[in-house]
């Protein structure tokens, strides 16, 4: 069956619009998005862009899903390639800082920016960014709990608190670096994360043979809907 | 000399506008401010509001200064009433979390919200929010260093890292609580701050007589221009 050329072009156009939309939103916020502006930026007809998204709110929600895919590609999927345990927890910290530091989005972490923008504004856009934030918090907590379950973090460690602290350090690195420039915030966040994870590590790891088998891995990241 | 009634009314009007402006900006951002909207909200003439501020950018900058005064009243001034040392550092953490938790601004910390909004947008508004953020970081670091200088924090503690971690925890508590609701983020931030400060405390404090006299207090917070 021949590929439908209009469909291919429609998908490519949609993708180009969402790439531009997420870049703009990471700097100017989701309120800064407008169908007219994106159409002008990309030299498309306004009616064509409107036909693909239908409303500004649908465009905002599509941008959040698209950014979630990019977040998953850069942070959560590479983390899940590492064996569960303290190594995966360290990989998660590094993948997350790297994603912010490399400016995958020109304004730094898309979800930090849009989370702050919509934190106190009720509606579907708020709910979508809040859900992405929650999914990422849960992912960090689950990664830490796995490491605890196999004995690589001490049993007395409060993994919710550890996850909150790692999350706080990553967010602060992103925020400070974007606001003030420079790489010092990443150095400080890496040092803090190393101290937190190192301080929580078991001093004597069980011999390999006694590590429980069949510990369930963190569930796959729900790529298209979540990030943080 | 009689008080000039027009001047008094002008100051009261200016204050009412800035109270409304900072409340709006903490929820919708500084871009959400417009002279027309504030005039309508407060039933003032647009030309009257314009006469007081001159431009949207001047209004944004005035709102940042006004919010800085409120931040100083709630966070930095009460902290400076406590003797320098670990007690002052703990008071700083608690005053800051309390300011966020009590929702002095309806959208949580004014400077968190506007910092994220303008982080990647060059200009005078960016510079003003970045300066406020820097001033607060410096204040935290100086408070920690004082505690170290008088022997209440261990000499091997990196006070820049400690300040970064405390700052990160407070920002995360504000962000998570505003985005998701609830008080759990404040509980986690308090636990994290307690661990960080407690972990940095000297195990044996010098006897009172040997505490150096005349250690300079942190300089007074420059009330009208800074916060974070």
Task: Describe, in short, the structure shown.
Two copies of one chain form a homodimer. The first copy, chain A, is mainly alpha-helical and 228 residues long.
What does this structure look like?
Two copies of one chain form a homodimer. With 228 residues, chain A is mainly α. The first copy, chain A, has helices spanning 5-28, 35-41, 46-53, 56-80, 86-101, 110-118, 124-149, 159-180, 184-200. At the A-B interface, helix 1, helix 6, helix 7, helix 8 and helix 9 of A face helix 1, helix 6, helix 7, helix 8 and helix 9 of B.
Total strands of chain A: 0
Global structural class of chain A:
mainly alpha
- Inertia-based shape of chain A: elongated
The Rg value of chain A, from CA coordinates, equals 20 Å
Order of helices and strands of chain A: HHHHHHHHH
Number of helices of chain A: 9
Measured between the Cα atoms of the first and last residue of chain A, the distance is: 40 Å
CATH T-level topology of the domain at 64-210 in chain A: Tetracycline Repressor, domain 2
Uncertain parts of chain A: 209-228
Q: For the residues shown, what is the average pLDDT of chain A? A: 88
